[in-house]
Design a protein that fits this description.
CATH class: Alpha Beta
Shape: elongated
Largest sheet: 8 strands, mixed
Order of helices and strands: EHEHEEHEEEEHH
Low-confidence stretches: none
CATH architecture: Alpha-Beta Complex
Number of helices: 5
Structural class: alpha+beta
Length: 202
């Protein structure tokens, strides 16, 4: 039986990165939207792993293929790793990232050096046709910048500084960002798990 890899997203930019990393495994790689799957999923987990698995399980119940889902966000150590799993809905779902980013900078007023440490985290959850589950985590370490910079990227990118490069992730080109991205790292970590499952079930 031939399987598909379904990723629980309708985000085309995200799918480009996914296909770059998983596209040569030998299975069709489709977004949830491309697969014609509609699901109203409540992400109420308290970790990135929990939310990724909630999404993967919900879509898996509707198709039975290999289903992947991700959850990601920003952890600021000085803020006890907030906004964390609430990154997308931090300060309210309709609050702009201009406001969120400025708020985080203000929270760190007077904080210097490595005390400004933060990371982008992504967890990929996977559910296989036989019910087997797996997850993989990727992270990019950095600091919170003193002021926003850069026009590329989105979300918290303008305030996430890469100390070794001296730029925020919003100042990177899309290609440069893909090279170091937390999602890319998580996808590359889950890839051998998928390959092994396919090898033993083909």
């Amino acid at each position: 039986m031939s399987y598909r890899i379904i990723f629980a997203t309708s985000n085309e930019e995200k799918m480009k990165e996914i296909r770059e990393i998983l596209g040569d495994i030998g299975l069709p790689v489709l977004s949830q939207k491309e697969a014609g799957i509609s699901a109203d999923i409540v992400e109420d987990g308290d970790t990135f792993e929990a939310n990724a698995m909630i999404k993967a399980r919900a879509v898996h119940e509707l198709c039975g293929d290999i289903v992947l889902a991700d959850d990601s966000g920003l952890e600021v150590d000085y803020m006890d790793k907030a906004p964390g799993v609430f990154s997308a809905r931090y300060m309210g779902e309709d609050t702009s990232y201009l406001i969120k980013n400025q708020y985080i900078i203000e929270r760190l007023e007077g904080v210097t050096g490595s005390d400004r440490s933060a990371r982008f985290v992504c967890v990929i959850g996977a559910v296989f046709p036989d019910g087997h589950e797996a997850s993989a985590r990727g992270a990019v370490e950095g600091w919170i910048a003193f002021e926003p910079a850069g026009e590329n990227g989105f979300g918290y990118d303008p305030i996430f500084l890469l100390p070794d490069r001296g730029v925020t992730t919003a100042e990177l080109s899309p290609e440069e960002k893909n090279e170091i991205s937390h999602r890319g790292k998580a996808l590359r970590a889950i890839r051998p798990v998928i390959e092994e499952w396919v090898r033993t079930h083909s």
